[in-house]
Amino acid sequence: MFSKDPIINLENFQKQRLHxxxxxxxNSFDFKLDYKTVGPDIQVKKTTGFNVGVVTNLRLxxxxxxxxxxxxxxxxxxxxxxxxxxxxxxxxxxxxxYIHFPLLLKFSSLRTGNIxxxxxxxxxxxxxxxxxxxxxxxxxxxxxxxxxxTTNYELGFGIDFFSEYFIFSPSIRGxxxxxxxxxxxxxxxxPWTSNIESLKSRAILINFTFx
Length: 211
Description:
Elements: E1 18-35, E2 43-46, E3 48-61, E4 64-68, E5 71-80, H1 87-90, E6 91-108, E7 115-128, E8 149-162, E9 167-177, E10 196-210
Antiparallel strand pairs: 1-3, 1-10, 2-5, 3-4, 3-5, 4-6, 5-6, 6-7, 7-8, 8-9, 9-10
């Protein structure tokens, strides 16, 4: 693969109009919080989650592809509120199981041997199966609620490595929420939600794709 004159693997594979693949990967989700008034920040503790999904790749022209990459993403974030003395009030665990629907444009460079770098970007919609959006209980009953559907934009880059039998494609992307996800508590003066202007997800996604 890295020799001066490598054997060219799968030379005609990416000339196909349509091809498919799958991916496995990791994620690190965070929250971007904006506040109505200045005060102590809510701290967000992140963990490493996992991703799994499929890829449908439509070739538009030699260097541009349209990709649909639906997948299942699992992650967990913990919010630490600074103004409480009891842990039951100060900590909110936010477990999220997402069904993620990205529609992306892939811009590839000229292939060099068996390596082809690319950049990717586009929009995605996400359904949070753990959103608690329909619950009547709120933070007073230890229930942190967010909206079920969110919209994001995504930007990233990766490299296609052409082996003898398949293409291995590691990539890293940033995913940035566009709309406010927070569902406010029933009490308009709630100490958990009243000072939050907006709460948006953002994430780093690392995927290993096989075609």
